[in-house]
């Protein structure tokens, strides 16, 4: 992975046209989607293995993942706050996916759709507070999900 990252960094530094940049970003996006798909298969396995719906959201695990992501970001010189914000959104989307899968397995027949969640179990969007204007790499999180 490090060798690929070095190769990618060299390619990015030597890009001279927007076409090169966009082609490379498109290629990376395809790779990211494949990895996200693999990650979701394990989220689905968690929905199958966890004994109760209440076990789906595990705050200790959320904190653990965010800590590990921050450590990984430091290793590759990626802005830690940006990594945190991206993963916070990914984790919330993963929890929603897991809840839908858990409910489907429990016989609620949601067909993998958030819209089919019972009204009292739907997540609601709230404004996030994660922002540091002085840090140009800090992504302002526009929403988080509350269950």
Automatic annotation (TrEMBL):
One of its GO terms (biological process) is chorismate metabolic process. Signal peptide: none annotated. It comes from Tuber aestivum (summer truffle). Pfam families: CM_2. This is Chorismate mutase domain-containing protein. It comes from the Eukaryota. Keywords: Isomerase. Transmembrane segments: none annotated. Residues 12-102 form the Chorismate mutase domain. One of its GO terms (molecular function) is chorismate mutase activity. PROSITE patterns: CHORISMATE_MUT_2 (PS51168).
């Amino acid at each position: 992975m490090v060798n690929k990252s070095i190769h990618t960094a060299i390619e990015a530094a030597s890009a001279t046209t927007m076409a090169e940049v966009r082609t490379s970003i498109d290629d990376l996006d395809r790779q990211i989607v494949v990895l996200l798909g693999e990650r979701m298969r394990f989220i689905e396995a968690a929905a199958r293995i966890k004994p109760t719906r209440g076990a789906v959201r595990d705050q200790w695990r959320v904190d653990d993942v965010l800590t590990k992501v921050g450590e990984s970001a430091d290793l590759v010189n990626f802005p830690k706050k940006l990594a945190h914000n991206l993963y916070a959104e990914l984790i919330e989307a993963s929890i929603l996916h897991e809840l839908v899968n858990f409910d489907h397995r429990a016989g609620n027949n949601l067909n993998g759709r958030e819209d089919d969640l019972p009204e009292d179990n739907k997540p609601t969007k709230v404004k996030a507070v994660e922002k540091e204007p002085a840090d140009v790499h800090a992504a302002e999180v526009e929403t988080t999900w509350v269950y």
